[in-house]
Amino acid sequence: MGRLLIVNGSPRAPRSNSRRYIEYLLQNWKGAADQYAAVSGGPVSFELYTDLLLVFPLYVDGVPAVLLPFLKTLAAWDGTPRPRVHVLVNCGFLEPEQNQVAVKMVRFFCKRYGFPWGMTLRIGSGEAILDTPFAWFAHRGIRRLAAGMQSGRSEVVSVRMPLSKALFVRASTRYWSGYGAKNHMTAEQMRTMEIEGRDFQT
């Protein structure tokens, strides 16, 4: 069994859902593993690792900007053997397929710089799924991801809540309204384009 580096690519790394996904994966990982927060930066000894797992939320159909410096550093590293790259990406949309463009971006990067491609886990409804009775769908997907990584497979695993779009929209509206209330924001305030006193609609 080799050594795994798990990269948290969320801008909110210490309090992100990406962190929660990583914690559950580590419970199902049988080998040695280290963690790295892309938002914090710092040097990485890539030669120590046989596998890299990028864990990040979908940002505008792509990879979060905080992950790009890490990828730039990885691209400049010319060591061998190349670690196998795996991806766990989650989005707030119901459909896990919404993550596919971001997955293709990372896969193109790997092809360009000679990194072997491994497992992919695409999680739909990822912002809320861990706090619902459907969390076990995400947990099952992560167990499949870990098993596939450890056996050297290259597969795509997709996870979502088993809800209709209409029901999902209603449930997500309740979720975000509650989230706003915790931060002293009304639903009406959350629907505006005003952020910290600036109106981004004009």
Automatic annotation (TrEMBL):
Matching SUPFAM superfamilies: Flavoproteins
InterPro entries given in the database record: Flavoprotein-like_sf (IPR029039)
Protein name, per record: Flavodoxin-like fold domain-containing protein
UniProt organism field: Pusillibacter faecalis
